[in-house]
Design goal:
PH-domain like; 39% helix; 158 residues; alpha+beta; 3-stranded antiparallel β-sheet; elongated
């Protein structure tokens, strides 16, 4: 998802890039809890029937589902903020806060769009200045990348 907050007169502002999330963490946990409850009920029935080995494997399945949901949710927590100031372009990447920060001189910064290696894949967007290159929005889908390309070209070359 590409969210912009820019001043058209000065060209200053910021662009926030986040992955598209299909569900919130709270919804994922509600689904997980309901599946865990169903698995516990079924495995308890098997336990009383004398098939006790079903119970621990059912627990392992529930834990594996939780681990998968946690992994996907943490990957979808990525955020990139591209800030445009009068003389600088500042890029911040992180999950809950800025973990890495890059600064480029606005007058020297150039946007490069590389074609995908395979047909059907999205383009790759890079900002480059003085030999330093950084990929932007690697987690975005095709439509969001096209929107980002239009915004960046308009701002960097303004």
């Amino acid at each position: 998802m590409v969210t912009t907050e820019l001043d058209p007169d000065t060209g200053e502002g910021h662009i926030v890039l986040t992955p598209n999330n299909s569900a919130t963490w709270r919804f994922n946990m509600a689904v997980w809890a309901s599946l865990a409850f169903i698995a516990a009920c079924i495995s308890t029935i098997f336990l009383f029937m004398g098939l006790w080995l079903v119970f621990p494997f059912s627990g392992l399945e529930v834990l594996a589902l939780y681990a998968g949901l946690h992994y996907v949710a943490s990957r979808n927590g990525k955020t990139e903020v591209i800030t445009f100031r009068d003389d600088k372009v500042i890029i911040e990447k992180g999950r809950n806060c800025s973990e890495r920060i890059w600064e480029y001189q606005r007058s020297w910064a150039k946007i490069f769009v590389k074609s995908p290696a395979f047909r059907g894949y999205p383009k790759r967007i890079f900002i480059r200045s003085h030999g330093n290159e950084l990929e932007l929005g690697e987690f975005l889908n095709k439509q969001d990348k096209e929107r980002l390309i239009r915004k960046l070209k308009k701002l960097v070359y303004a």
